[in-house]
Amino acid sequence: QVHLVESGGGLVQPGGSLRLSCAASGTIFKIYTMTWYRQAPGKQRELVAQISRINTTTYADSVKGRFTISRDNAKNTVFLQMNSLKPEDTAVYSCQMFIQPFVGSVRDYWGQGTQVTVSS
Predict the structure, then answer these.
(1) Per-residue pLDDT tens for 56-75?
(2) Which of 2, 72, 100, 114 suits 31 as a labelling partner, its CA being 20 to 30 A distant?
């Protein structure tokens, strides 16, 4: 069984920084694309940042230049470094990964989400 757990969320002032982590555990053979999503109250979930297995990265226009996604394959972990945070970044951030277990086929897995609040 595979589980994803996010950490690093919290309350930060505008202009501040946070670093989110998402670690996958279980009988994992390989992890493909890793993605961070966010959802604010009353709004649709949106893609924030994505990193492929060959380290190709994509970002939402609203976070480009401020956020950086990275991965540590040895630790089955994806990170999201968030700098110059704005109130509009306030949301629940969730990680998603496509994972190949030792037995079975590739499918998507989701973490439970971590709250990020940017406020003075």
Answers:
(1) 999 999 999 999 999 999 99
(2) 114
